Structures are given as C-alpha cells and as structure tokens.
Amino acid sequence: MLKLLKLEFSKFKKSTVVIMLSTMFLVFFPFSLAVGKIFDNFRTGLPTSDAFFQFTTIWEYLGYAGNWMVFFFLGVVMIYMVTLEVTHKTMRQSIIAGLSRNEFFLSKLYIALFISILATIYYTIIALTIGFINTPNPTIELAITNEWAIPRFFLMSFGYMTFAMMVGFIVRSSGLAVFLYLSFVLMIEKLIRYGHMELIGNKFTKFYPMKSIGDLMPLPLLKMADYIKTKDFDFSLLLSYKTASILSIIFILMFVGLSYISFTKRDL
Amino acid sequence: MQMEVLKIENLSKNYGPIKALNNLNFTVQSGQIMGILGPNGSGKTTTLGIILGILKQSSGQFTWFENRYEKHRLRIGSILETPNFFPYLNADENLDIIRQIKGVEKRTYDDLLELVKLKGRRKSNFQTYSLGMKQRLAIAATLIGDPDVVIFDEPTNGLDPEGIAEVRRTLQQIASQGKTVIMASHILDEVEKICSHVTIIKRGKLMASGNVGSILSTDLTLELAAADMAGLTRFLEAYGGIRNITKSGSIIECNAVESLDAAVLNAKAYQNNIKLTHLVSRKTRLEEEFLKITGDKKVN
Fold first, then answer.
1. Which of A185, A191, A155 shows the shortest CA–CA distance to A167?
2. Which terminus, N or C, of chain A has the lesser number of Cβ atoms within 10 Å?
C-alpha cells in the first residue's frame, strides 16, 4: 500500500492542477465558515454566527461546508488523477513498465482513501481549533459531542472520491468526466429523483447515491426544518445518519466495483 | 542454452468485424533480436499490446519465459508507440517512477542518461523535449531494472536522420549486451541492419518467421542484359545454380547460389557467344523477400 501511495505522490507532486485545487481546498474550507457572519444580520429566529464557530454545532456547519469543498475541489483532483493518466498514456506506460492492472487500480483506490483521511483530519483540526477558540468554557466532553461527525465526514469524502474515480475510469476524458461528475451531483440525480417522484411517488426518492452521501453532512438548517416538519408529518427531507451511512457504504462498494470492472475489462 | 522467452499461440484480436490478428504463432528465443515486420496496420502494435497486457486478446494465448505474463512482467522493458511520461516532470523524476514500478533500489540514472545522451537535459521537463529526446528517454526507461527482454515499437518513428542514427546505435549497444530484443518496425532497412531474426506479418497473419539469413536465404540476385536476350535466357537455364529467371524490361533478373562467381559466369557466356552488356551481382535484400512473401508491389 505504501509503495503504491508513494508512487502516486511521485506522479502528482508537481502537478499544477493538483497543487492548485488542493491549496484552494485547504484555504477555502476553514474560511467557508465566515458565511456564518451573514446570519448576524437576520433577526428571524435563525441561528446567529455563534452556531458556526462554537461547539457542538460547528461540527455540523463545518461538515456541510466540507461537503461542498470535498465534492468540488477534491473530487475534481481525483478525476484528474485518473484521466491525466489516460490523456498522457502514462496508464499504459505504468502497465507495460510492470505494474499489474490490479496494482494500478489499487493505487487509485488508495489515493482516494488517503485524500479522504487527510480531509477528515483537516476537518477535525479546524473544528477543534475554531471551536476551542470561540466556545465559552469549552470542555473536551462538549468538543466531542458531535453525533459521529468525524466518521460521517470521512464516509462522505470517500463517497465523493470513489464516485469521482469511477467517472474518471469510465469516461476517461478529463473535460467530459468533470462535466459529468459536476452535473450528475448538481443536476442529473436531482432530475432523476424528480422524475421518480412524479412517476412512482415519494417512496425511495431519498435512496439515491449523491443524496445518501450528501445527507451524511446535510445543511444544518435543513435538519432543523426536517425536525420541525417530521413532528407533524410522516415525511422527512433527510435520511437518518444511520440510513445515509449504510446506503453510502453500499454505493461506495458499487462505485469501486464498477471502476474495477471498467478498468480491468477494457483495452488501455 | 537458448530458452523460449516468448511463445505466441493462435493469437487473435477482433475489433468488431475487423480481424486485427488472425491466429498468429511465433516464438522468440533468448538472445535473439527479433524484428516484427509488416506494413502499417498489419497488427504489429496490437501484438505487442497484447503480450504487454494492455490489450485483451479475443482468443489464443501467449507465455513469457514459459509462464504467465504477470509472473515475469518486471523482466521486460518496453516502449509502445509514442513515449509516454508525465509532461511536468523531468527525466530523473520520470525515470524514478519507472524505478518505483519495477521495485528497484533507489539509484542515480547517470549511466542510462549517458547512454541515451540526455544527461545535459536531465532537469528539463519532459514537455520541453524534442521527439528524438522523448524517444531516447523512453529507451532509457526500458533499461531500468536491467530487464532480460526489451521491446521497441517503431523506435525511430518520426525522428530525423540524425535521431534515427542515434537510436539505432543505442539499440545495437543494448543488443550487444546479450539482451533479447523484440522490435516492431515497418522499415525494412532498420530490421535488416539490427535484427538477427524476423517475423513478417500482414493483415494480422503470419507470413514468415525465422532468422534473417534464412528469410533472406543465401541467394544472390543477378541482373543481366545482352544483345541476344533469348540466347542469354537459354544460357542461364542451362547454367547450374541459377533459378527464378524473369525478364524485367530489357534486363533479366534471376537468383543464384551464393558461391556463384559472376566473373566466371561472364567468361562462360562469352565462350557461348553471348556478350553481356549488363551484369550486376548483389545479395538478395530483405525488401525483395518481403515483397515476395507479402505479395505487395510497394512497401513502406
């Protein structure tokens, strides 16, 4: 595993695209919390900016910001790491130099796992740092009260990474893969769900891959609205964390499986 | 003792209705410099792609060192088509990636870069290299890990004459180290100059395979002309060791055994009142054999 990770590092350590997108992730992620300052201008019962910067809610707000940051910056990095090797035929070169197809595939899977772990560690560090600075009388117990936010964030990150990897392996062309990745998450799945709701009804409309992964770190305001709503109706906007986690694991396995089949069964 | 390095048995590859390879069979023994020769689109790169694991065969099989490819892939160094490296990395960094794949100890690449004359540009990014330099870096990459077999696909493609000469020199140097070399090319002269053995394929089918000497045979090709062409033809038919007599314009072409002495032939023709106005004796070239084997009028 270390050998393959080291190999990936050697390949991309000087890639401008990877460096640029990773730096943007590192910079924008903590600063995304600054959006919370806007909420101080409202006096409508919405949470104040304190909720964004203090325990225990910081885990939810930062997690939701991370949901977008990982999806956008790191997802595109992952696609690039796969498709660049097709564009420059280094995928072929790696195989003819002696890497087996399984090893090549594992090197991409490991890097997806590694990036997800690093993103999760970064999320944890930012949440703890900002939380301890801004929470009055912070305690360890308060800091770690977060409904398994850290594993949920990891699962969400790995979900986006494996989805991006799958799109990269199947589509192979950088531009088209990024376009399909972004449009599937932002639009296509939503349209399919809308069609599903119109044709079949509301049942299972939440059981879609990006919906499941996104619901691991949902918009906290949506969660609040969901809470208010479910008190009166037998309907919720979000999946429970448990359901979202189980579905995400199933979808991750599917993404990995489809990537593997696509890569190993095709000519390079 | 010679060992069977590569054995290809009934290898076929179909792209839809198109048969890129059609039951191809040939073997490569250790120490051979095997040229895979054929016109563009004959299936040379497809064959190499399959035996290197990047293309899937439709049927048939192949073995490396009498075993599965996966077991011996690190013993093979190869370039397939164009050189493929990371454009934003320099020569050392790109070679280091190949080293990591091969699982070889960390090392400097002075000797390899010296061999391919890239030492002076080792810190320049791959994307700034000329085609010849890229090709030479690819040759250096094939030698990492001291492989037993090196494979080159059209190694002089797109190079200028100086680049071609440099690459050929490097290939001959590699071959002189006793490595088994497999080289696909459509350039007959290249194969003739470098290879000890040749496999000729056309439209995915094996046309001939063997050592260059046997493919070339040991024949001489004679070109003759005389005022009395009919008499010359009769004289040649009666002369021992001459065959395949054909008239081509005002010249008669024929093959003769290697031991035939052109001066003796000339003297005997004179004794038979046939005054030769034209007599050329030369070794049969691979191009002529290639044309004969493939039935093509033109070669690339």
1. A185
2. N
CA distance B268 to chain A (A): 60
Q: Could you give the number of structural domains in chain B?
A: 2
Q: Which residue has the higher pLDDT, A265 or A78?
A: A78
**Touching A: B residues 65-94, CB under 8 Å:** 70, 73-74, 76-78, 80, 82, 84-89, 93
Give the model confidence (pLDDT) of A89-129 as tens digits: 999 999 988 898 999 999 999 999 999 999 999 999 999 99
CATH number at residue B263: 3.30.70.100
pLDDT of residue B47: 92
- Which residues contact residue B299 at a Cβ distance below 8 angstroms, ignoring those fewer than 6 apart? B39, B186, B188, B287, B290, B291
B187 and B62 in a single domain? The answer is yes
Indicate the residue type of A128: L
| Cα–Cα distance measured from residue A160 to residue A244, given in angstroms and rounded to the nearest whole number | 14
- For the cut 80, the answer to whether the pLDDT of residue B83 exceeds it is yes
A9, closest residue in chain B (CA to CA): B97
Distance between CA atoms of B32 and B213, rounded to whole angstroms?
A: 13
CA angle centred on A9, ends B99 and B134, rounded to 5°: 50
Task: Give the three-state DSSP class for B184.
Answer: strand
